């Protein structure tokens, strides 16, 4: 029964005691402004300068901003910086959370938000044959070693992942016995990634990935005026030049040397990508999430390269010793012989 002389209904003293016992005190952590550091510190932690982080924040804000301001929700800048720290370090989620003063679950949500948002910009920042005019791309490659009409160098790299559970686990075992995603990439002479295929398990051969890619279909239809350069693991085609397996002294040897020097751009791109984003040395996530993170890192690499962010110093990695594919097409051998005769004789 309520009392007319009291503004609030009476509450039993026992109920008050129970409420005090089971009350959970809310702890709102003090999160520092991630941009309140020198550029050298920001680049070391996030691989981007202050201007670069602000650019990414404005770019991704419509996709990652919090829908509420309750409980001191993460700002877009904090969300982006948490994801960048993970991409740059590849450390455990709780370690990123301790560094950014947030919980592990908040780190996981922030990373997922950012890499899914970056996938929306794949068609904007990863464009084949390049953001530049095709003639400029060809001139850039020709200046390296005199190889003509090149619009891209192609190769695959393995991104290590943890062993996935289930019956498909064996599909991800590569020829070295580890679990990985086999990722195909194409780059231009300035180490911009122009094409990426990140969906194949580690057991799949490089040549099959290319044959079943949309890029191969476009070249078969004659959509591009130019050639790709690849290693001996691919078949030589009219638009795809590979080395001579047993070159004769003279023009064929000079051709192989020029191809190797020009194709080194894709190895440099892989080195820069993995050195800039250390998480790509081993991803402790499910294969589908690993593919999304790889694509996001490719987009971030292009943004950093276009904005002229600090480039990590890397050494060109040696080529993988793939078994050669003896399926060279006659038109490919004829095109290769013409290039040797006109440019390296």
Automatic annotation (TrEMBL):
Instruction: Give the domain of life.
Output: Eukaryota
GO terms for cellular component: cytoplasm; nucleus
The keyword Transit peptide is annotated on this UniProt entry: no
User: Which residue range or ranges hold the DDE Tnp4 domain?
Assistant: 154-302
What cofactor is needed? a divalent metal cation
The GO terms this record gives for MF are: hydrolase activity; metal ion binding; nuclease activity
| The entry's keywords | Cytoplasm, Hydrolase, Metal-binding, Nuclease, Nucleus
The keyword Nuclease is annotated on this UniProt entry? yes
Which cellular compartments is it found in? Cytoplasm; Nucleus
- Cited PANTHER family: NUCLEASE HARBI1-RELATED (PTHR22930:SF267), PTHR22930
General function of this protein: Transposase-derived protein that may have nuclease activity. Does not have transposase activity.
Q: Provide the family line.
A: Belongs to the HARBI1 family.
Q: What is this protein called?
A: Putative nuclease HARBI1
